[in-house]
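Standup notes, protein team

Yesterday: finished cleaning the Streptomyces sioyaensis set.
Today: GvpL/GvpF family gas vesicle protein structure.
Blockers: none.

Input for GvpL/GvpF family gas vesicle protein:
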Amino acid sequence: MTATMSYAYAVARDDDDTLARALSGLPGVADAPVHLVRQGEMVVAVSPVPEQDFQESALRAHLEDLEWLESVARAHHRVIGALAERTTVLPLRLATVYLDDERVRQMLDARQEAFAGRLSELTAHTEWGVKIYVETPAATERPAAPPAAADLSPGRAYLSHRRAQRHAREDAYREAEEVARRVEDAARHHAVDRVQHRAQQGELARGPGENVINDAYLVPVGHAEGFRADVLRAAEGLTGVRVEVTGPWAPYSFATPPETEPMKRAAP
């Protein structure tokens, strides 16, 4: 029999015993069934996973395997999404594992008061992602041959074109700074907290352009439409900059209390 560990997805309050139905038939990581570990009204969604894949040394190796990581992430988010449709949740980090369900229960018992307080703070709030992209030719991209000019040699014309390209990039970055300022101003009228993530690069960066801002905002449900509309307007009138707004999501970035003072929503 294959040894297993308990994979933990999220913490939630289940005072009406409805969350088990939300998870019924839903496959978790490694297609395992998901169940609830309960301590009073608080629950943790968990599923068994092979110990050989999730013990520390194996997990370190797997985290370098993007295909494996993407499969785990899809299952992780699928379970959290199913819970978030029913209640406020505290998503746990990807690949959070315990030796068994009893260890999960002990963790829940030890942190029950803190979890309950954070769930109350996040009730009726969702997370929205805001990314800003600079869309300019890559610095290493060879520019197209410039049109012939009577007073420029081919070499000087090429350098002139390069200079214009560099200036275009500098202008785009300045405009991105302006868009970032506008986004922050718009968000203050709606969001109650913000987390600044590292800009995405390489295979994590999807779509055209260079990701220069990758922020998450905690927004009251009643402000969601206004937040999205106002943030998207931030790039109006500026070229070479794109704003992407995603959500609503479960509050992945806000599951733990902020270490610094949360942002204050501006007066209407």
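Follow-up from PR in the comments: The first strand starts at residue 4 and ends at 13.
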